[in-house]
């Protein structure tokens, strides 16, 4: 009996166990209540049941809009696949489950599509030029919903511009554009323009909610604040090196043109850098130097100037005789001397033979009108200042015909027959005159007898008496002088010599006095009844 009762108890327990394992009809949607989905992604909604052997499923939207997805039913669950998710899937989706056609359950999930797929795109229209307006454009591609979009434009950490689209009612993805115009300055180079886009959707958890893009500014500007520095300074000594550096502010780097202006010339230097170097300066390097800076992007030009004065001892730049260093007597002659230095030099122009200054200080030209042979010789120019002096020499060669022709007879006392007589002819001229001697014949003709300055007659005889002519000649003229040798007859006294009376005369001026003297001597001899020696007369012309 007890055995039967034990079997009955076990059966009851089994029945109770079975009854306890049977679950009630339930359903759920995964994900539950609210889901944020990226537009373009795939979203699967799953409707699960428990406690129902043969459930039936149905999907619909809250307002019976198209599902925008594909339904797939299985034994105990159903899926709604949205591939891809789009803005049309922005609904509350309801899943209805009927169990054995008796019991029905329904749950819903809110699908919130969004699109924030990429970082903003920054564009800066036109080349940035300092001081001129520039426009920054920020594009945020394929945003949804745009009424949650906020955009900031920043320069480094400074907010240039802020814009939101909270009032925007777009129902599809759109590329939103924010523009801003500003005036860049030179100090903006290297700074970053940043576009910050934020998609602010309340109670939605997704990442990223903020996207940024940056672009460095490269503002073109200048040239500006251009200056020239000179090393070792604005007044270097002659022979020193000189470096002129043109300093400017410009982006992109400018083209530099160096110009030099002076009283005499204009020289242009093109360089690929900002330094103009002169290894050894000279006085003619003095002048106004101009650095011209050209920005080919901004099309702007700026100039800076510096006045360079080269200092040093004078340098004689010109010492000349015009029309030539060799001139003919009577020509007009100009002697020119010029020098350069800083400070300006004192110039002394003089003939070396007399050390006489020929002009005032700093004279550039001295005129010798109708030059004479006395003006010939060596001239010197002296230029001096506090740093030293310089001198130069030049020779003026004056060509002229024979002058001051003279005859000298030796001995000058009374001569005796048989003695030696020396006659010397001198004359000045440039070039030196050629001297020749002629003797007058009884016929009146002249016979060339000797070509030298000195004529010597040895063992003087009566046939040597007569008129002797000296001729001085060069290419610029000739001059003649004469001398006459006289002697009278011998006396009867055997021991007395015939005196020689020498009279000298020039052809034009002394002939008459000489003849008068001879007549006088002859008469005296006859009166006295004897001959006497007559002192020779010396004639110097």
TrEMBL record:
Coiled coil: none annotated. Keywords: Cell adhesion, Cell membrane, Disulfide bond, Glycoprotein, Immunoglobulin domain, Membrane, Repeat, Signal, Transmembrane, Transmembrane helix. One of its GO terms (biological process) is cell-cell adhesion. Gene3D superfamilies: Immunoglobulins. One of its GO terms (cellular component) is plasma membrane. It is a single-pass type I membrane protein. It comes from the Eukaryota. It is found in: Cell membrane. This is Vascular cell adhesion molecule 1. The lineage of its organism: Eukaryota, Metazoa, Chordata, Craniata, Vertebrata. The gene is VCAM1.
